[in-house]
C-alpha cells in the first residue's frame, strides 16, 4: 500500500516536470501503476548519443524498500547490460539500493552507466573483453552500430 | 497559577494526568491524597452518612486565617477573663464541623482533622483565589446574619436542605462554642479589606477589548510579550513568572510544529505530519545526519528484510540519502532546526528510556544484545544497576577493541578449516 502511494507521488512529480528533463521520459502503464516504461537518450560524447533506449521498469510490491527491476528493451551493446535479456548490472539496482532513490533517479543512474561502462563486472563478456583489452575503437564502433540498428529507429 | 500543592493529584494516582508539570496538584507519592467530600463543603451531600468521602468541614484558608487573627487578638485581650473560650492553635476549627446528628461522628471527625489541616486541603478551595473571594465574603456575611437571626428567633430547621439553612446550622454550632458576634464581624471586616493581589484582573482587558480603559474598576494586567495578551497580574509575581515560562514553552513548541509541518519524508515523499495514519505522524531522527524521515519508513528500511548481498553496516545502517552511518533512530513529534535542538530531542528520549527496564536484560535474568550501548535501564530486582567492566583487547595493529563474551566456538568458526583438504 505504501508503494502505491509513493508511486502515485512519483507519477504526479513526473507529470509536473514533463518536458524539463528531455533526456528521460517516464511513462506509466495505464492500467498498472507497478509497470513503467522509460525512454532515455544516450549521453553525448558516447557511442550511444544518437539513440533513444527503452527501459522496462517493474516495480515490486515492497518498493521503495526493495529496488525496482529495470531492464533494457532496446538492444544495446554495453559491458554491463546483458545482450539478450537486457538485464542491467548496476549496484544501486541491487545491493546499494536506497529507498530515497526514485524511478527518475534510477533512469539518471542508467544514463550515467552508459557514459561510464564498468568493464570489470561485465554481463556482456564480449563487450567487456574488448574494453579490458584496450580496444576502445572496437567497442565504440560496435556500440555505435547497435545504437544505429536498434535505438535510432525508436525515435 | 501552577503552584504545587501538597495534595496528591487524583489523575496522577491513576497515571493519567495530562497536565504534567503544570498540574497544580502534587505529583509526588509522598503527599497524602485528599479524601474530603466536596459536596459536603457546599452543604449538601446526597449520600449523607453513606458517603465514602470524609464529611469534615474544611475551613477556607482565608476565613481561617482571618479567624485566627481575630481569635488571637481576643484571647490576648481576654485571656484571663474568658475561661470557657477554647482557641484552636492551628486555625482549623473543630467547632465548625457540623453538629448534624450522625453525619459525622465526633470520633471520626476529630481523627481526620489533623490529616486535612488547612494547608493541606487548601487547593480544594484555593484553585481560583480571586474569583472565590466574593463568595467567601458573602458566605461569611450570610452566616453572620443567620446567626444574628438565630439568637433572636431561636428556630432552626435541620430538615431543610437549602444551603443557607445549612449555614445556619454550621454557624449555630460555631457560635455556641467559639465565636461571639463581634468576632464574626471582625472576620467579615478582615475579609472585606482584602489584599489587592487577590483582586482578579479584568477579563475584557486581557484581550484588549475593555473599553473603559483607566476608568475600569478592575485591575488591568500587564502585556505578556510572548502571547500578546494583557494577562500578567501586576501583583502576583509568582503567577507572572509561571505564565511567562509556560507561554515561552508553548510558543517554542508551536514554532517547532510549524517548521515540522512542511517537512517531507525522503522515503515515502509525504509530509510526515500529514500522513493518513495518526501513529505514523512521527519523525525518525538519525544520529549521524539531518535528513528527515518518518519513523515508520526509516524503521522498516533498517529492520526490514533485504535482498542478500546488501551490506548491513554501510547501506542499511546508513542514511538512504547521504549514506552516513547512524547507529540509532530517535522518534520525535517535531523536527529540529538547529543542532542544539536535535541534541535536546535525543537527550530527552534517552533520558526517558533510561528510566524503563530493558526487556532483554530482564532484571538480570537475560542478556541484552546491546550491552552497554542499550538505552534502557539495566537494573537487578533489588534496584542495583548493572556494572560492566569492558575488556579492551590490543589488536596487532596497535588499535584497541572492546571484547565481548568470547567462546571457543568463535575461534573454531574463524579457522579456515576445509575437511576436503585435510582428508
TrEMBL record, chain A:
By its UniProt entry, which InterPro entries does this protein fall under? Answer: Ub_conjugating_enzyme, UBC, UBQ-conjugating_AS, UBQ-conjugating_enzyme/RWD
Q: Which Pfam families match?
A: UQ_con (PF00179)
| One annotated GO molecular function | ubiquitin conjugating enzyme activity
Keyword annotations of the record: ATP-binding, Nucleotide-binding, Peroxisome biogenesis, Transferase, Ubl conjugation pathway
Supply one GO BP term.
Answer: peroxisome organization
Gene3D superfamilies named among the record's database cross-references: Ubiquitin Conjugating Enzyme
The record ties this protein, via SUPFAM superfamilies, to: UBC-like
Presence of the UniProt keyword ATP-binding in the record: yes
Q: Catalytic site residues? A: 89 (glycyl thioester intermediate)
- EC number(s) per UniProt? 2.3.2.23
Q: What class of enzyme is it?
A: transferase
List each copy of the UBC core domain by range.
2-152
Asked if Repressor is a keyword of the record, the answer is no
- Spell out the family assignment given in the record's similarity comment: Belongs to the ubiquitin-conjugating enzyme family.
Q: Could you tell me what this protein is called?
A: E2 ubiquitin-conjugating enzyme
Q: Which organism is it from?
A: Riccia fluitans
From TrEMBL, chain B:
List, alphabetically, the CDD domains matched: RING-HC_MKRN (cd16521)
**Regions of compositional bias (Low complexity) in chain numbering:** 75-86, 110-127, 143-165
Q: Which UniProt keywords apply?
A: Metal-binding, Repeat, Transferase, Zinc, Zinc-finger
Provide the protein name.
RING-type E3 ubiquitin transferase
Q: List residues of the RING-type domain.
A: 265-323
Q: Record's superkingdom?
A: Eukaryota
**Protein's UniProt keywords contain Amino-acid biosynthesis:** no
Keyword check for Zinc, yes or no. Answer: yes
Cite the residue spans of the region called Disordered: 75-127, 143-173
The terms under GO molecular function for this entry are: ubiquitin protein ligase activity; zinc ion binding
| Domain C3H1-type: from-to ranges | 3-30, 31-58, 196-223, 352-381
Q: Which PANTHER family match?
A: IP09428P-RELATED, MAKORIN-RELATED
